[in-house]
Specification:
heterodimer, A: mainly beta, seven-stranded mixed sheet, four-stranded antiparallel sheet, 53% strand, globular, B: six-stranded mixed sheet, 51% strand
Chain lengths: 114, 118
């Protein structure tokens, strides 16, 4: 069974641009969660989708948004990029609602904002 | 809001020895899950072990075991017979089972870098 895949793996953007990151969960998984990882703030929860519905959102500005498609693939979008958005963005999938279901993580997308 | 604290930024251990990583958390909830995740230098996060708060028995997975002290809100990870492949960043994480705004949200500690010396 293929693991969680994220594309692209690396991305370089400039301030003010927008970016879209993609996450394909493990086949059969319906929940996708997104996290931002930085050296200073550590791992922070962005949002979680289950069956195309956003169930939860972390404390991030409205520039961060996401969606989930009927095949459970998820995308997150960051508009008007700032230098502080440079981070490793991880997505994780689980079969049901995360918690009592193990979250499987992807390799991440490394975003650099110049 | 829940918080997770890992007080050891770095730890080291000799191969074949035992090491314990510490984690404390703060919550007013009674139903939750605790996890230890491992993130090797390749960056793929892997679940090491999971503990359900309502279970008194400490979870074990081969060489990995936890010491779960619910009243003290402590959740330490013991790695026995350490191997070179255990070298990684280890994260302690909390997940509420309350539903609602807790869906899908893992709250992580700051992590502990574990070095294994041959």
């Amino acid at each position: 069974k293929a693991g969680v895949t994220q594309t692209p793996r690396y991305l370089i953007k400039t301030r003010g641009q927008q970016v879209t990151l993609s996450c394909s969960p493990i086949s059969g998984h319906r929940s996708v969660s997104w996290y931002q990882q930085t050296p200073g703030q550590g791992l922070q929860f962005l949002f979680e989708y289950f069956s195309e519905t956003q169930r939860n959102k972390g404390n991030f500005p409205g520039r961060f948004s996401g969606r989930q498609f009927s095949n459970s693939r998820s995308e997150m979008n960051v508009s008007t990029l700032e230098l502080g958005d440079s981070a490793l963005y991880l997505c994780a999938s689980s079969y049901g609602l995360a918690g009592n279901n193990e979250q499987f993580f992807g390799p991440g997308t490394r975003l650099t904002v110049l | 809001a829940q918080t997770v604290t890992q007080s050891q930024p770095e730890m080291s251990v000799q191969e074949a020895e035992t090491v314990t990583l510490s984690c404390t958390y703060d919550t007013s909830e009674s139903d939750y899950y605790l996890f230890w995740y491992k993130q090797p230098p390749s960056r793929q996060m892997i679940l090491v072990i999971r503990q359900e708060a309502y279970k008194q028995q400490n979870a074990t997975e081969n060489r990995f075991s936890v010491n779960f002290q619910k009243a003290a809100k402590s959740f330490s990870l013991k790695i026995s017979d350490s191997q070179l492949g255990d070298a990684a960043m280890y994260f302690c994480a909390y997940h509420s089972n309350a539903g609602g705004t807790s869906y899908g949200k893992l709250t992580f500690g700051q992590g502990t870098i574990l070095t294994v010396h041959p």
